[in-house]
Amino acid sequence: MVLPTKRYENIYSKSSIDNDYHQTLIAGILSTVSSTPLVVAKAWDKQREAFANIHIDYKAALMSQFGEFEPEASALFKKDLDGVIRTYPGASIQPSEKDQTFSSEILVASGHSRSDNQGLIDFQKGPSFNYLPISDVLKAHEQGDSENLKVWFDGKIVLLGNVLDDEDLLRTPVSIAAWKKDSNDMPGVLLHAQILSNLEGDGLIQTLSSTWLMFIVLILNLTYFIQSRPAKILYVSLFVIALFIFQTISLKNQFWFHAGSIILVLTWITTVRGTVDAWTQALERRLLKNAFLGSVSPSVMNEIMTGRVSNTSQGRLEHVCILFSDIRGFTSICEKSPPSEIVNLLNEYFSRMTRVVHQFDGTVDKFIGDGMMAFFGAPKASMTKEVDAFNAATAMLSELDAFNEERLRLGKIPIQIGIGLHVGEVIVGRVGSSDRHEYTAIGDAVNISSRLEGLSKSLGYSIVLSESVADALGHQKDIVPIGLQQLKGRSGINVYASAPFKDQV
Length: 505
Description:
Blueprint: H1 21-33, E1 40-42, E2 44-45, E3 50-51, H2 56-63, E4 72-74, H3 102-109, H4 134-142, H5 146-153, E5 169-171, E6 185-187, H6 188-200, E7 206-207, H7 210-221, H8 229-252, E8 255-256, H9 259-292, H10 298-305, E9 316-328, H11 330-336, H12 339-359, E10 362-368, E11 371-376, H13 385-409, E12 416-432, E13 437-442, H14 444-459, E14 461-466, H15 467-473, E15 480-485, E16 493-500
Parallel strand pairs: 1-4, 7-8, 12-14
Antiparallel strand pairs: 2-3, 5-6, 9-11, 9-12, 10-11, 12-13, 14-16, 15-16
Helix pairs in contact: 1-2, 3-6, 7-9, 12-13
């Protein structure tokens, strides 16, 4: 209840002594304070950004009281960001920076000692409030109904205030009005009543200190170092469950901490770790892509980048089919052509042959002068590596025919190639120094494939295969058995061939 700032005769026509409300109000205040402490609320003037001053006569009547309480006190509240009132409006909220609120001064006036109150309002404590209409009080007074007046007011703190549905409403987390169960917009007088109920009872809800908050955040930071995804999920899940259990227990004991803020910190830490991991993985993928770029087919590269094919930085034993190819009579071509033309020839030839190898999921190992080495079955394992290698060799000859047609139209000499195929176990991995390395295959099967390619010229066939490759192909009709052939540096092996040379260059 806020007292007027002006005398009543300034706002009401005084035609009789009964209408002298100014004197009546002063008399009422003096009569009350003679037996009962009275505290009235200060009204905040938004335009002046200060408390409004009540009329000096009313103020003088209030100040006639004895006691340590302030008879006129602030009724201000501070809203949270969502517009809800949760915090006791203590010294940090008041313009005077003193804990002299409407509630605290009523409490002191009722005989309690002064204390520095701070914390959150406990809206769960006590039953919902109801109100007694002033008309019922006046009626009981006029009828001399002292019994009801004693039941209603004797020995109690009495708050007078407005309970209209469209005036002086403040948003609370829950309803505390018995007549407004479906609304959280409460009359301001009820918030003061709830605070008084807290202060007279178990007190306000206390919040977590910054020291404890820092300790919890420190524990949360440990999640950053947990690399195992299942372990991290388990740690976070258990922590969140424990957090809410602890919050429920602590709230029953007048203690509260912002679990949402702690979870927000946890989310932030998890996000940062996820970002760092994503960046690290992206860097690793980039390095991996550079290591295989131009060596494997797009489909194999996709397998590698998605993690379905492991990063074989350490060499491992693989069963692969090796393909060696070489341009027949390349030395004589070099003697008859300028270097720039030779470079253009090799660039165009290797570009075409690389596309063919990649088409059959092969890996281009290296280019050696006019020769090319490729293998099938690594880094992506294949059950049809021999078939893929042979089909790639056949497709290389078809691509060579198209290439030679273009060369003939330009008046250039056509070329022939020889291809050797062999299957066996080799070490596959990245070999070299930290500054320069390559993804390659090393083993006896590589040497045999190279030797087989060397036989193509003397045998007159474009494709020369080992018996193991021919067996895997089922000795199809276009594969001709050549018989035992002596390979340089090793004992002879059974050799098969396909695709006779069309012309000798």
